[in-house]
């Protein structure tokens, strides 16, 4: 195992180089001190802004104290990987056509959890080949980890007013992952923020979930409503969701820094099953077997068929009234799931009001 400062610096450079060969866009390294972020995180939880995401609170301060989550951790290797798919249908065009289903760009391909975890494990294996056995644990949006704070400290970008990480060279269309380790690697310097007076992300949010710069009330966020929330979507928010049936990209689409976003080099994140340009009616016709087959290996699979139908029913309720839309909703009117029936009834009532 390397013993000198020069060797640790050399290893850090090797890790960054290996990361690029594995498909990561950038690698940074930081320490475990998140004391500056801890009060804000505690207050966010205290305000109830995490909604039904109990996992955000149940681990206490482990989220802001990496060494308590993984004893022995002294460094975090933070990695980002671009995901913007090439040749996807223009997001604005899809969202303006109420017949179509808008799916967040990150979910058009394979499940990023699996892709990044696999690559981070490979990177860890490469480190082990160099230094021998060492302590580490790999994370990708899968544990109590403050990914954006760590990535910011590691110099990968700055936290935007929408709370996502922003990079001058890549906007925000990327995933983050981490390796918690006991290796005393040299740390990188954070970079300053560059949002200035811009409030584009705050102004564009359909549900006004960004209640202040750098503060999101998840209970109003469409990504939360369509993915994290397992129960009924509050009625007053349903019309604001439009045709966004899985996630929401509005704050990213309007961000000026995404002029510099990079198209992914990873085939895993290319569009699958035509999900970038597909009708609400077609998706609503999928039975559970079809959903499971087509969504296997996708992040969407995690929400399950019932929640998928719930989201689509809201989208259909917001769609222009056509015989196809009404027929699709009527077909699910007596669905076995009370959750689906409720949202279908709401959707049909929306069209009744339009007549």
TrEMBL record:
Cofactor(s) for this UniProt protein: cob(II)alamin; [4Fe-4S] cluster
Keywords: 4Fe-4S, Cobalamin, Cobalt, Cytoplasm, Iron, Iron-sulfur, Metal-binding, Oxidoreductase, Queuosine biosynthesis, tRNA processing
Positions that bind cob(II)alamin: 63, 141, 165, 176, 223, 248-249
Gene Ontology biological-process annotations: tRNA queuosine(34) biosynthetic process
Sequence positions that bind [4Fe-4S] cluster 2: 205, 221, 248, 251
Active site, UniProt feature: 141
UniProt enzyme class: oxidoreductase
Enzyme Commission code(s) on record: 1.17.99.6
Positions contributing to [4Fe-4S] cluster 1 binding: 195, 198, 201, 255
Subunit structure, as described in the record: Monomer.
Full protein name: Epoxyqueuosine reductase
Taxonomic lineage of the native organism: Bacteria, Pseudomonadati, Pseudomonadota, Betaproteobacteria, Nitrosomonadales
């Amino acid at each position: 195992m390397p013993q000198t400062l020069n060797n640790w610096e050399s290893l850090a450079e090797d890790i960054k180089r290996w990361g690029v060969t594995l498909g990561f866009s950038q690698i940074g390294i930081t320490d475990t001190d998140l004391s500056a972020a801890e009060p804000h995180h505690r207050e966010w939880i205290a305000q109830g802004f995490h909604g039904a995401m109990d996992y955000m609170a149940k681990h206490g301060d482990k989220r802001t104290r990496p060494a308590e989550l993984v004893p022995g951790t002294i460094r975090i290797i933070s990695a980002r990987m671009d995901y913007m798919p090439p040749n996807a249908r223009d997001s604005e065009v899809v969202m303006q056509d109420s017949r179509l289903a808008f799916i967040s760009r990150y979910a058009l391909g394979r499940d990023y959890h699996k892709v990044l975890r696999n690559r981070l494990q490979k990177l860890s294996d490469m480190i082990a080949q160099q230094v021998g056995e060492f302590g580490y644990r790999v994370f990708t949006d899968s544990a109590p980890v403050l990914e954006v704070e760590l990535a910011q400290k590691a110099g990968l970008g700055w936290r935007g007013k929408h709370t996502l990480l922003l990079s001058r060279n890549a906007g925000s269309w990327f995933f983050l992952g981490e390796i918690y380790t006991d290796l005393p690697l040299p740390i990188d310097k954070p970079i300053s923020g560059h949002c200035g007076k811009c409030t584009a992300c705050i102004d564009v949010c359909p549900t006004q979930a960004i209640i202040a710069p750098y503060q999101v009330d998840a209970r109003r966020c469409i990504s939360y409503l369509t993915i994290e929330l397992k129960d009924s979507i509050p009625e007053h928010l349903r019309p604001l969701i439009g045709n966004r049936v899985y996630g929401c990209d509005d704050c990213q689409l309007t961000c000026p820094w995404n002029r510099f976003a990079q198209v992914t080099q990873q085939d895993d994140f290319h569009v699958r099953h035509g999900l970038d340009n597909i009708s609400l009616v077609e998706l609503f016709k999928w039975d559970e077997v079809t959903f499971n087959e087509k969504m296997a290996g996708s992040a969407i699979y995690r929400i399950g068929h019932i929640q998928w139908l719930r989201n689509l029913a809201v989208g259909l309720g917001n769609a222009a009234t056509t015989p196809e839309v009404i027929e699709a909703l009527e077909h699910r009117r007596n669905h076995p799931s009370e959750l689906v029936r409720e949202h279908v009834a709401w959707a049909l009532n929306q069209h009744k009001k339009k007549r």
